[in-house]
């Protein structure tokens, strides 16, 4: 019997690692809270909900990563004076990492905020009670991506026009294939676990 226990434990371990990695990457709690909070705010303004956009998520993560070592001050994040936003010289590289470029992101909006501990109610207020609220109250935006690192959380809004879709022509196929791959791999592990139990 001991012989059969090992592969079962092994596949359980492997699948829990796979699944936990996946959920850590896609669903930080703070990000989910903010997503719900922003859509409730949109609802209160009689605007349609923003749908999640994977590429915008990826880009929000990259931007959060650039900000993460900067402290929160009264001139950063939602307190930034318009026109003094930090410019990253590697912006095109960051877009590139998410298979994006300036032509499909130009109309989007990138909104970083800095809140110690990412306290959900304070984070949401930083979006709904700052200059950013004008973007949240804009019907041209239809999609959203959220990324966070340390005290920084970044929202990227997308449009349904080619200039702000955050969806490159060439990426759809690769995205689908990786999704099918992940699904296949999960099913294989699930079936393996059931069989061994
Ligand atoms: C920001 O904080 C500094 C001190 O840290 C203060 O001198 C300045 O007046 C503040 N600016 C605003 C706009 O609150
Ligand atoms: C944004 O968050 C900071 C904490 O970093 C807080 O001091 C500030 O009051 C918040 N701004 C708004 C508009 O809620
Ligand atoms: C949202 O936008 C509409 C029209 O653009 C405006 O009438 C309304 O006052 C705005 N609401 C908020 C909370 O900004
Ligand atoms: C951006 O990507 C699109 C297709 O994904 C391509 O047609 C376009 O030429 C690219 N633009 C730039 C500036 O690289």
TrEMBL record:
InterPro entries: At5g19230-like (IPR045285), At5g19230_dom (IPR059083)
Source organism per UniProt: Phaseolus coccineus (Scarlet runner bean)
Protein name in the entry: Uncharacterized GPI-anchored protein At5g19230-like domain-containing protein
Signal as UniProt keyword: yes
Keywords, in A-Z order: Signal
UniProt KW Nucleus keyword: no
Residue stretches making up the Uncharacterized GPI-anchored protein At5g19230-like domain: 31-157
Signal sequence region: 1-26
């Amino acid at each position: 019997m001991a012989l059969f226990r090992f592969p079962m434990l092994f596949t359980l371990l492997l699948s829990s690692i796979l699944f936990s990695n996946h959920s850590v990457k896609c669903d930080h709690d703070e990000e989910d809270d903010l997503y719900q909070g922003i859509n409730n705010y949109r609802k209160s303004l009689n605007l349609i909900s923003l749908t999640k956009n994977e590429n915008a998520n990826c880009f929000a993560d990259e931007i959060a990563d650039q900000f993460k070592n900067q402290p929160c001050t009264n001139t950063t994040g939602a307190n930034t004076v318009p026109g003094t936003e930090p410019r990253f010289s590697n912006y095109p590289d960051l877009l590139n990492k998410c298979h994006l470029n300036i032509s499909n992101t130009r109309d989007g909006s990138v909104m970083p905020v800095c809140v110690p501990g990412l306290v959900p109610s304070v984070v949401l207020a930083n979006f709904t009670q700052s200059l950013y609220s004008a973007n949240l109250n804009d019907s041209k935006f239809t999609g959203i991506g959220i990324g966070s690192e340390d005290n920084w959380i970044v929202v990227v809004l997308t449009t349904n026009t080619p200039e702000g879709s955050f969806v490159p022509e060439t990426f759809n196929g690769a995205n689908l294939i990786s999704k099918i791959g992940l699904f296949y791999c999960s099913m294989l592990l699930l079936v393996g676990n059931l069989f061994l139990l």
